[in-house]
Design a protein that fits this description.
Layout lengths: L1 H14 L6 H17 L9 H20 L6 H14 L6 H14 L2 H12 L5 H18 L8 H11 L8 H8 L7
Helix pairs in contact: 1-3, 2-3, 3-5, 4-5, 4-6, 5-7, 6-8, 7-9
Protein backbone atom coordinates (compact mmCIF):
# COMPACT_ATOMS: atom_id res chain seq x y z
CA UNK A 1 0.00 0.00 0.00
CA UNK A 2 2.76 2.49 0.93
CA UNK A 3 4.70 1.50 -2.16
CA UNK A 4 1.69 2.18 -4.39
CA UNK A 5 1.07 5.53 -2.69
CA UNK A 6 4.68 6.59 -3.28
CA UNK A 7 4.49 5.42 -6.90
CA UNK A 8 1.29 7.45 -7.34
CA UNK A 9 3.10 10.57 -6.07
CA UNK A 10 5.94 9.88 -8.50
CA UNK A 11 3.49 9.49 -11.38
CA UNK A 12 1.76 12.74 -10.41
CA UNK A 13 5.07 14.62 -10.46
CA UNK A 14 6.08 13.06 -13.77
CA UNK A 15 2.68 13.92 -15.30
CA UNK A 16 3.53 17.61 -15.24
CA UNK A 17 0.28 18.55 -13.51
CA UNK A 18 2.01 20.68 -10.87
CA UNK A 19 2.08 24.39 -11.77
CA UNK A 20 5.61 25.64 -12.34
CA UNK A 21 5.56 28.84 -10.33
CA UNK A 22 8.33 28.80 -7.68
CA UNK A 23 6.06 28.87 -4.62
CA UNK A 24 3.86 26.01 -5.83
CA UNK A 25 6.88 23.93 -6.85
CA UNK A 26 8.50 24.25 -3.45
CA UNK A 27 5.38 23.75 -1.36
CA UNK A 28 4.05 20.84 -3.44
CA UNK A 29 7.21 18.80 -3.64
CA UNK A 30 8.28 19.56 -0.07
CA UNK A 31 4.86 18.56 1.22
CA UNK A 32 4.97 15.30 -0.68
CA UNK A 33 8.42 14.48 0.65
CA UNK A 34 7.40 15.34 4.22
CA UNK A 35 4.41 12.99 4.01
CA UNK A 36 6.57 10.18 2.63
CA UNK A 37 9.25 10.79 5.25
CA UNK A 38 6.68 10.60 8.06
CA UNK A 39 5.26 7.32 6.79
CA UNK A 40 8.56 5.59 6.00
CA UNK A 41 10.61 5.97 9.18
CA UNK A 42 12.46 9.02 7.84
CA UNK A 43 13.03 7.30 4.48
CA UNK A 44 14.80 4.37 6.20
CA UNK A 45 12.91 1.36 4.94
CA UNK A 46 14.12 -2.20 5.02
CA UNK A 47 11.70 -3.31 2.31
CA UNK A 48 13.65 -3.02 -0.93
CA UNK A 49 10.53 -2.30 -3.02
CA UNK A 50 9.49 0.60 -0.81
CA UNK A 51 13.07 1.89 -0.79
CA UNK A 52 13.11 1.70 -4.58
CA UNK A 53 9.86 3.69 -4.74
CA UNK A 54 11.33 6.33 -2.39
CA UNK A 55 14.47 6.68 -4.52
CA UNK A 56 12.36 6.93 -7.68
CA UNK A 57 10.32 9.67 -6.00
CA UNK A 58 13.50 11.61 -5.22
CA UNK A 59 14.66 11.32 -8.83
CA UNK A 60 11.27 12.53 -10.08
CA UNK A 61 11.26 15.48 -7.66
CA UNK A 62 14.83 16.45 -8.57
CA UNK A 63 14.16 16.19 -12.31
CA UNK A 64 10.98 18.25 -11.92
CA UNK A 65 12.95 20.94 -10.08
CA UNK A 66 15.72 20.82 -12.68
CA UNK A 67 13.23 21.22 -15.55
CA UNK A 68 11.64 24.17 -13.72
CA UNK A 69 15.13 25.55 -12.95
CA UNK A 70 14.30 25.74 -9.27
CA UNK A 71 16.60 24.60 -6.47
CA UNK A 72 15.39 22.00 -3.99
CA UNK A 73 15.11 22.63 -0.26
CA UNK A 74 18.34 21.70 1.49
CA UNK A 75 16.89 19.05 3.80
CA UNK A 76 15.45 17.08 0.88
CA UNK A 77 18.75 16.99 -0.99
CA UNK A 78 20.62 16.09 2.21
CA UNK A 79 18.21 13.26 3.09
CA UNK A 80 18.25 11.88 -0.45
CA UNK A 81 22.02 11.96 -0.71
CA UNK A 82 22.46 10.37 2.68
CA UNK A 83 20.14 7.49 1.79
CA UNK A 84 21.62 7.05 -1.69
CA UNK A 85 25.17 6.93 -0.31
CA UNK A 86 24.22 4.35 2.30
CA UNK A 87 22.32 2.15 -0.16
CA UNK A 88 24.67 2.52 -3.15
CA UNK A 89 26.24 -0.89 -2.53
CA UNK A 90 22.88 -2.69 -2.69
CA UNK A 91 22.85 -4.56 -5.98
CA UNK A 92 19.10 -3.95 -6.43
CA UNK A 93 19.29 -0.23 -5.67
CA UNK A 94 22.82 0.77 -6.72
CA UNK A 95 22.01 2.18 -10.16
CA UNK A 96 19.02 4.07 -8.80
CA UNK A 97 21.16 5.50 -5.98
CA UNK A 98 23.62 6.81 -8.56
CA UNK A 99 20.71 8.47 -10.37
CA UNK A 100 19.57 10.10 -7.12
CA UNK A 101 23.07 11.47 -6.47
CA UNK A 102 23.46 12.78 -10.03
CA UNK A 103 20.02 14.36 -10.17
CA UNK A 104 20.55 15.92 -6.73
CA UNK A 105 23.59 17.71 -8.15
CA UNK A 106 21.32 19.37 -10.73
CA UNK A 107 19.11 21.04 -8.12
CA UNK A 108 21.46 21.45 -5.18
CA UNK A 109 25.06 22.44 -4.72
CA UNK A 110 27.40 19.59 -5.72
CA UNK A 111 29.43 20.56 -2.66
CA UNK A 112 26.42 19.85 -0.41
CA UNK A 113 25.69 16.57 -2.18
CA UNK A 114 29.26 15.33 -1.83
CA UNK A 115 29.61 16.50 1.76
CA UNK A 116 26.33 14.89 2.81
CA UNK A 117 27.20 11.62 1.10
CA UNK A 118 30.69 11.50 2.59
CA UNK A 119 29.29 12.25 6.04
CA UNK A 120 26.78 9.40 5.63
CA UNK A 121 29.48 6.98 4.55
CA UNK A 122 31.52 7.59 7.69
CA UNK A 123 29.22 5.22 9.57
CA UNK A 124 29.21 2.57 6.84
CA UNK A 125 31.76 -0.20 7.37
CA UNK A 126 31.22 -2.05 4.10
CA UNK A 127 34.06 -1.34 1.67
CA UNK A 128 31.63 -1.98 -1.18
CA UNK A 129 29.62 1.15 -0.35
CA UNK A 130 32.78 3.26 -0.33
CA UNK A 131 33.96 1.71 -3.57
CA UNK A 132 30.64 2.29 -5.34
CA UNK A 133 30.52 5.90 -4.13
CA UNK A 134 34.08 6.39 -5.34
CA UNK A 135 33.06 5.07 -8.77
CA UNK A 136 30.11 7.45 -8.79
CA UNK A 137 32.44 10.32 -7.83
CA UNK A 138 34.60 9.52 -10.84
CA UNK A 139 31.48 9.55 -13.03
CA UNK A 140 30.42 12.83 -11.39
CA UNK A 141 33.79 14.42 -12.26
CA UNK A 142 33.42 13.30 -15.87
CA UNK A 143 29.85 14.58 -16.19
CA UNK A 144 30.00 17.81 -14.19
CA UNK A 145 33.74 18.53 -14.24
CA UNK A 146 36.04 18.59 -11.25
CA UNK A 147 35.68 22.38 -10.78
CA UNK A 148 31.97 21.89 -9.96
CA UNK A 149 33.02 20.30 -6.67
CA UNK A 150 34.26 23.69 -5.49
CA UNK A 151 34.90 23.71 -1.75
CA UNK A 152 33.82 20.07 -1.56
CA UNK A 153 37.37 19.16 -2.44
CA UNK A 154 38.30 19.80 1.20
CA UNK A 155 35.96 16.96 2.24
CA UNK A 156 36.60 14.71 -0.72
CA UNK A 157 40.39 14.40 -0.75
CA UNK A 158 40.75 13.39 2.94
CA UNK A 159 37.94 10.86 2.48
CA UNK A 160 39.65 9.38 -0.59
CA UNK A 161 42.93 9.13 1.24
CA UNK A 162 41.18 7.37 4.13
CA UNK A 163 39.22 5.01 1.89
CA UNK A 164 42.21 3.87 -0.13
CA UNK A 165 43.51 1.90 2.84
CA UNK A 166 40.52 -0.43 3.20
CA UNK A 167 39.03 -0.55 -0.27
CA UNK A 168 41.40 -2.92 -1.98
CA UNK A 169 39.57 -3.41 -5.26
CA UNK A 170 39.30 0.28 -6.14
CA UNK A 171 40.24 1.22 -9.64
CA UNK A 172 43.68 2.81 -9.21
CA UNK A 173 43.08 5.22 -12.09
CA UNK A 174 40.05 6.48 -10.21
CA UNK A 175 42.18 7.18 -7.15
CA UNK A 176 44.83 8.90 -9.25
CA UNK A 177 42.23 11.07 -10.95
CA UNK A 178 40.61 12.07 -7.70
CA UNK A 179 43.80 12.77 -5.79
CA UNK A 180 44.99 15.01 -8.61
CA UNK A 181 41.78 17.05 -8.67
CA UNK A 182 43.18 20.10 -6.87
CA UNK A 183 45.38 20.66 -9.90
CA UNK A 184 42.34 20.67 -12.19
CA UNK A 185 40.57 23.44 -10.30
CA UNK A 186 40.18 26.58 -12.32
Amino acid sequence: MRQNAIKALTAYIESGSIPTDPVTIETSTSSMLVVVREHTRSFNETNVNIMKAILELFVAVFEFHADAEHVIVEWAARDATSIAAQKISDRKLGTLCQSVLSSACLVSSPYNVLSSAIESLKGVKSPVAHEEFLKWTKLFCCEFGAPSIGNGITDLIPWILEVRFFVTTVDRTCLRLLTLMPFYRS
